[in-house]
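Morning!

This is the sequence you dropped in the shared folder:
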Amino acid sequence: GYDEWICEGIDAGANGQQQVPTHAANKASAMDFVNKTVEDMLTWLSGKGYDEWICDAFEENEVDGRAFLLLTRDDMENLVKRIGPKVKLLAEQTKLLKACELGNASLVSVVEWDEDG
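The structure's back. Tokens below.
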């Protein structure tokens, strides 16, 4: 399972402490997005310094982590009108997708694994 994959990637660091390699840590961070609620996304957006109107747009449109990872450029165009924040959010999304080593087509299977969401 995924937890086993992460555990296999843990090595003892130079000081004897367990360290997760960057690739594993990035993948864990990206995969965590799949489970983020709308409220989690609002906290994430605020923590990244995005304006309240962007948080409002995410909340009004019920954009959780899974939805964020699946947003297309057109979706983002409709959600965020200002170019600066829009391209920054697209860059964040791309970084997360690359961390998962997924393209949009294979992402669908990952984000839809939980049919309850």
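Headline: The CA atoms of residues 30 and 54 lie 21 Å apart.

More detail when I'm at my desk.
O.
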